[in-house]
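Record pair follows.
FIRST:
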Amino acid sequence: MKQRWQRRWLWSLGLVLSVCSILGWGLGAWSQGADPAQPSLGRLRLGAELYVQRCGSCHLPVPAQTLSTDTWRVLIQDINHYGIQLQPLPKLDFNLIWPYLRTYSRPIRPGETVPYRLGQSRFFRILHPGVELSQPIGLGSCKSCHPAAQQLDYITLVPNWQQFLTPTAP
């Protein structure tokens, strides 16, 4: 009888400790803002670097923020890329690049047309308030304001960037 009670007690103690450990781990991750469904910052950086390497080898790498999530979903899976036949992205590359693009882009509004050109993108226009943009907007024109665009650095601007602002009436 005494051994049976001891076994039950040990079993109960083990169960309680296991549940507490699981809850403690979950609460610890939650309190630090970690979401197991979200990619880590390291994976997002790796995805951005791979995006620059893969896409920036043919054209300026466009920041994820400038196009919608829906646009990126189509672009990185379509082998007919603006009239050029591409090899499909290897699964490993896709699994690193897609979380980066998905995390830093935004969905379009219901009923909004999916933009496939920068000039059609509401997000691109929001990121360029008051800037007089050439028409049509081409990827090559980005360098006139963003000298480090090839490295996905769209924060650094040319010293005379104010010349591109639309004059406002007094």
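SECOND:
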Amino acid sequence: MIALLWRSRSQQASRRLRPPQPTIPPSHPQGNIESHPPGPLLSWARLSIHDTHVGPHFVPAGTTAMVNMYAITHDEKIWSNPNEFKPERFMEEDVPIMGSDLRLAPFGAGRRVCPGKAMGMATAQLWLAQMLQNFRWVPTENGVDLTECLNLSMEMKSSLVCKAVPRISA
């Protein structure tokens, strides 16, 4: 009886010391990758060894073809309002991110899929959860500029500036 009472009190005390636990809907990472694919030109490069036609397009032998993930994730024929950040679209429709649905395949698909895809997603979700749990995020007076520029990966044109306020003071 004493052990149960002690355990109950210690659990109550530990709950009071913990910061609020934010929940991250699983649709948010998908929404972010859909809006801002990290690698807009996937390394699914293929070399045409024969002259061929793809739909109405002629592809001569020796042409290197690459998948433009940015164009796919911003195509109005595939997504409604593709330029809006709408993570709820992934709650309404299950769009797997791991390569079985080519509308959203940032890690590639098939035999040449990225071997680090599971670790990358787990790491990104853990990092996001820790940042949300430990800090309250406050925008600056200038707002947030999400303009991007294409280098080897998709990068922000201007650095993200915001204020991180610790949730628990030391």
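COMMENT: The first helix runs from residue 2 to 17.
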